[in-house]
Amino acid sequence: MNCWLVAPLQVYWMTAGPSAVDVPLGYKWVVWGHTDTTVKLTAGRHRITLAAQDADLGVTKGDAIIDKIDLSLRDENVTSPAIYEAEYATLTGTRPHYTYPGVSGPGAVPLPKGASATFWVHSPTDGEATVSLDHLGDGRAQVSLNGEELDVARTGAGKKGTDVVRAFLSGGINKITVTGVSPGLVPDRLRIAPSSGTLVTKVYQAEDGTPSGAAKVTDAYTFANGGKAVTGIGDGKANALTVDVFAKRSGRHAVTIRYSNAEQAPATHYNPDPITRHADLSVNGGPARRVLFPTTFHFNAFRELTVPVTLKKGTNRLTFTAEELPDFNGDTYNQYDQRSPYAPVIDQIAVTPLS
Length: 355
Ligand SMILES: [Ca+2]
Ligand SMILES: [Ca+2]
Known about the structure:
Blueprint: E1 2-7, E2 9-14, E3 18-23, E4 33-34, E5 49-51, E6 53-54, E7 58-59, E8 63-68, H1 76-79, E9 82-85, E10 90-92, E11 116-123, E12 127-136, E13 140-145, E14 148-149, E15 160-169, E16 172-182, E17 186-194, E18 202-205, E19 210-211, E20 216-218, E21 229-231, E22 241-247, E23 251-260, E24 264-265, E25 273-274, E26 277-283, E27 289-293, E28 303-311, E29 314-321, E30 345-353
Antiparallel strand pairs: 1-4, 1-8, 2-3, 2-5, 6-7, 9-17, 10-11, 11-16, 12-15, 12-17, 13-14, 13-16, 18-30, 19-22, 20-21, 22-29, 23-28, 23-30, 24-25, 26-27, 26-29
């Protein structure tokens, strides 16, 4: 469905039974967005109703203009698992061969030591996925995800087989690189399927953390989980949010921050000017890492952003701060308010082992 709207919105979608559909915020009036949902239909004529209220679900929040609905048949064989042939990957130090019998697609890729195959894989959400590498040969390779070496990254036992790793993918496009460690391995393809249960996520509400200085818990945002979020982080390190999180074992973890950011510079003649806010994230008092949070168009529209961090076994303290960054010459003068001294509004933090 295409729509435009001035606030985040849920609409109710009625086919066999009513369900709510979240409509993400469009950028501005006349900038059309879309949201997708799945319905099961028999052959023939159907009536689909979009409603602003429903006897069971209540009344929608927000406001939208609906333009049209596109109905398309979903091909289950294509959507899960997603298949990425090695011969179509970005290859360094090797080339595809098209003479292997019985492989998937037209070929496979011998991977000598140091050669690599890079796959750009999609994930609809921030979460666990099962990454299966189908291969020939018995060499070994190392697998990295978005530049992070995966814990279970050795592959290649047996002449023809599959090595499986469960990894945390970010919503959107992820970079997976398979690099040859010892010669003989011939990747055929990657299969990516959403999965659950192996990488256990722990969720912490920002409002259960400790805000300091001017940072505070607010219930002003109806789409925040738990109805509350933390605002006012930034404009100096004294205004911070601290959240204690638990790690079952030491190592790399995905910290997924649910946030909103609708800050804009005062508009010029015609351009809206969204501003990316930043937060400096420190783990256990260590050096801060700067994280950029793109606009979500409205402070009541929340999105997720995942940052990899190293946690020790047990309790770890995450601290979020922000302050305005100086110009390249050290001058902090910022005539057009094109930098924000504030971190985004933080709703919740989720912690998951990376692999
Ligand atoms: Ca192949
Ligand atoms: Ca919350």
